[in-house]
């Protein structure tokens, strides 16, 4: 079996207050998403989101089911969002091939039987993906960067000048509950998602990439009045509970993918926290 999986259980915010660094990292940080010619996934009990990475280096890699899903195929009861975080590569979905340029996305609906990731012609193929439970089938759809809903926010003087590309949201593609997007920080900017916010209706996962190997991002999490932090390296991800803020500052500019699952598809449904109210 080419897929390796682990389970992460949900945590009460009151319990999180007592965690030391090792426990925080064990519970919320995903360090090893990519293995040569394989797939790694973490099955989170927060809205049952699956966070995964596919790394076809010298051979095709198929997305297989695993025992915790209790299903014949991975997508029998799920939907899937894929974003290419490597060079141009291909994904085959039930016999139809899709070429994905860097940062392009592919939505795959419930009921698809076969998803296969292919090596890249130039460089090492890497695909990041999220999967959430689904209640109906929506068509498979590729979303190029030109088709994404794109906004530019922040300013260099506040160290948060960034471009947000909403690739898998309901204004771009129909999904059951999954939403994903790509945020790129400009050179000289390091802050993301500030002012911070929470959204009890949805959990979130952050995947940090395009970060130099000798640089890091400090990801801030926790309740607004009881914050914690995780030091995150390139190609690592963080599980963000609904009750937690999700913000970060890097020692360099970087790019990250945000993925959400939960009760609604309202991107702007959030409870904002002023920077001066954080503790």
From TrEMBL:
Q: What is its EC number?
A: 5.3.1.17
**Can you name one GO molecular function term for this protein?**
4-deoxy-L-threo-5-hexosulose-uronate ketol-isomerase activity
Q: Which cofactor does it need?
A: Zn(2+)
* CC cofactor note: Binds 1 zinc ion per subunit.
Q: Which reaction does it catalyse?
A: 5-dehydro-4-deoxy-D-glucuronate = 3-deoxy-D-glycero-2,5-hexodiulosonate
Q: Name one Pfam family in it.
A: KduI
Record keywords, A-Z: Isomerase, Metal-binding, Zinc
Binding site residues for Zn(2+): 197, 199, 204, 246
Quote the pathway field.
Glycan metabolism; pectin degradation; 2-dehydro-3-deoxy-D-gluconate from pectin: step 4/5
Function summary:
Catalyzes the isomerization of 5-dehydro-4-deoxy-D-glucuronate to 3-deoxy-D-glycero-2,5-hexodiulosonate.
PANTHER family according to UniProt: 4-DEOXY-L-THREO-5-HEXOSULOSE-URONATE KETOL-ISOMERASE
Entry similarity comment: Belongs to the KduI family.
Query: Which HAMAP family does the record match to this protein?
Result: KduI
Q: What is this protein called?
A: 4-deoxy-L-threo-5-hexosulose-uronate ketol-isomerase
Gene encoding the protein = kduI
């Amino acid at each position: 079996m080419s897929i390796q999986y682990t389970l992460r259980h949900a945590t009460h915010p009151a319990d999180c207050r007592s965690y030391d660094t090792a426990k925080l990292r064990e519970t919320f940080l995903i360090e090893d998403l990519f293995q040569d010619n394989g797939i790694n996934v973490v099955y989170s009990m927060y809205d049952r989101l699956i966070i995964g990475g596919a790394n076809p280096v010298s051979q095709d890699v198929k997305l297989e089911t695993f025992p915790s899903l209790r299903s014949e195929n991975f997508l029998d009861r799920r939907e899937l969002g894929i974003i290419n975080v490597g060079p141009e590569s291909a994904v085959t979905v039930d016999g139809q091939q899709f070429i994905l340029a860097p940062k392009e996305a592919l939505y795959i609906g419930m009921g698809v039987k076969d998803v296969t990731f292919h090596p890249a012609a130039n460089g090492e193929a890497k695909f990041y993906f999220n999967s959430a439970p689904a209640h109906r089938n929506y068509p498979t759809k590729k979303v190029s960067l030109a088709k994404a809903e794109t906004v530019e926010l922040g300013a260099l003087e506040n160290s948060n000048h960034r471009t947000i590309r909403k690739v898998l949201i309901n204004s771009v593609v129909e999904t059951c509950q999954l939403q994903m997007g790509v945020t790129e920080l400009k050179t000289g900017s390091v802050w993301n998602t500030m002012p911070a916010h929470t959204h009890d209706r949805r959990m979130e996962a952050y995947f940090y990439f395009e970060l130099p190997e000798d640089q890091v991002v400090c990801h801030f999490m926790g309740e607004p009045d009881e914050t914690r932090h995780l030091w995150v390296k390139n190609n690592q991800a963080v599980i963000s509970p609904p009750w937690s803020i999700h913000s970060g500052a890097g020692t360099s500019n970087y790019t990250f993918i945000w993925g959400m699952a939960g009760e609604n598809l309202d991107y702007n449904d959030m409870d904002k926290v002023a920077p001066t109210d954080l503790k």
